[in-house]
Design goal:
The protein has about 400 residues and is of the alpha+beta class. Helix content is about 35%, strand content about 25%. It is built from twelve helices and 18 strands. The protein has an eight-stranded mixed sheet with strand order 5-4-12-13-14-11-16-15. A hairpin with a 5-residue loop joins strand 4 and strand 5. Helix 1 runs parallel beside helix 8 and helix 2 crosses helix 8. About 45% of the residues are buried. Bound molecules: flavin-adenine dinucleotide.
């Protein structure tokens, strides 16, 4: 076991992945989470092979598959008529066996990572422990964290700090004070609908179902072994005055954003339990050069918040965690050298994904009917003539395996 005192701020998917990976690499970590209860909001995520092979390495792939759902294809349909345009297979070849494409509820993957960390480390996450302030003592070469527990602030010293505290990261404020997250003009409605609440005709195909309309798009898919349908419905807006970025929201208001959309989509949205309809403001930030200051390093959304248009935020956080642990394991006596290596390995890849997700926003939300028509013709043509196109065009993303 290495002797450095390492703190991880944030116990989201990124923080727990880092905690598990570092524990497996022989480091002992203290994880601080501001929430009093460890839980994730009711929403699903897609995990692609570039992330799921890491779950296999960590020994949690079987549980993840069991808790999630393996889609058969990406199915793209017309937003107004609901008519299928193209179908591109997933999980259909041997290459997906140890690295499947999985749809899963955030709370389920979160719980799997949490249990795996507890089992590997024998430690608990410090809950209700909010990082308020960071101070570096250059003489002592320690980082002092000011941790607030219900108004009670204590100072705790560490040799190394990982900021996995999400898009509005306190650690990022310390590392890169000039960089602010930017509202992208998109909000995402997210919800979960039990399949039993949907009439048989509204139940979607067992695919990642994608529909792209003017200034909006919707994705829906099964989670929890097919017991529930998760949707993400993104719409452009210039109105987001609320300070909070995740809000409980109103189903009727959501339906107003999708007037004119096909019956299946509207029926799924309308079946949302009013208590579990959420609206998220979508932020991102320009990729920035450094993720490191003194002994603090960034990971996940804290390092590279991105639009969900490539379904990769959690995947990138899992890749980061795996890479950081491998780099530190290579330089256990010089963590900063390991961190330099981590940044070199991760910066270009995550920046590429951030920028590609931004480009997808333009493609998904095309308003010009002529351009929309051409896009749909092209997708139909590809679906018939080259169904492997989807996997091939994303091979740079899905077939990537973190190597140090
Ligand atoms: P977070 O999940 O934000 O976790 C940060 C944690 O830090 C939180 O628990 C928070 O409470 C804690 N924290 C914050 N500040 C402090 C503090 N000062 N002190 C202590 N604790 C603190 N990704 C995918 O891979 N696939 C998808 O399909 C996908 N779909 C998405 C759809 C939408 C609409 C959105 C908005 C995102 C989607 N994502 C997807 C992105 C993904 O959810 C995030 O990128 C990922 O969860 C980021 O994880 P994280 O751990 O870095 O940050």
């Amino acid at each position: 076991m290495h002797s450095q005192r390492i703190a991880i701020i944030g116990a989201g998917i990124g923080g727990l992945s880092a905690a598990l990976a570092l524990t497996r690499a022989g480091f002992s970590v203290a994880v601080f989470e501001q929430s009093k209860v460890l839980q994730e909001v009711g929403a699903g995520i897609q995990l692609s092979p570039n992330a799921t092979w890491i779950l296999a390495e960590w020994g949690v792939l079987d549980q993840t598959k069991k808790a999630g759902f393996l889609p058969k294809a990406v199915k793209i349909s017309h937003w107004r008529s609901g008519q299928p345009l193209g179908r591109f297979p997933l999980n259909h070849s041997d290459s997906f066996l140890n690295a499947p494409y999985i749809h899963i509820h955030r709370a389920d993957i979160h719980q799997i990572l949490h249990q795996a960390f507890r089992k590997a480390s024998g430690s608990e996450v410090h809950l209700g422990a909010r990082l308020e302030h960071i101070e570096y003592d250059a003489d002592q070469r320690v980082t002092r964290l000011h941790i607030d527990r219900d108004g009670d602030v204590s100072e705790e010293e560490f040799d190394y700090v990982i900021g996995a505290d999400g898009i509005h990261s306190k650690v990022r404020e310390y590392v890169e004070p000039a960089s602010e997250a930017r509202f992208t003009g998109n909000v995402a409605w997210r919800g979960l609908v039990p399949v039993k609440d949907l009439s048989p005709s509204c139940r979607p195909d067992p695919c990642a179902n994608l529909l792209m309309g003017p200034g909006a798009h919707v994705v829906y898919y099964y989670v929890r072994g097919g017991e529930a349908v998760n949707y993400v419905a993104v719409v452009e807006t210039d109105q987001w005055q609320e300070e909070s970025w995740t809000l409980k929201a109103d189903v009727e208001e959501m339906l107003e954003d999708f007037v004119g959309w096909n019956a299946q989509t509207r029926d799924i949205l309308a079946a949302t339990n009013p208590d579990s309809c959420y609206r998220w403001a979508l932020y991102d930030r320009e990729p920035f050069q450094t993720w490191l200051r003194d002994q603090c390093v960034l990971l996940g959304d804290a390092a590279h918040p991105m639009l969900p248009f490539l379904a990769q935020g959690a995947g990138m956080a899992i890749e980061d965690a795996y890479a950081l642990a491998a780099c530190l394991e290579q330089h256990p006596d010089d963590l900063l050298k390991g961190t330099e290596l981590y940044m070199v390995r991760r910066r270009d890849r995550t920046a590429k994904v951030q920028l590609q997700a931004r480009r997808n926003m333009k493609l998904y939300h095309v308003r010009n009917p002529m351009v929309q028509f051409c896009r749909h013709q092209y997708l139909s043509f590809l679906g018939k003539s080259n169904p492997e196109h989807f996997n091939k065009s994303l091979a740079w993303l899905y077939e990537y395996r973190v190597k140090i």
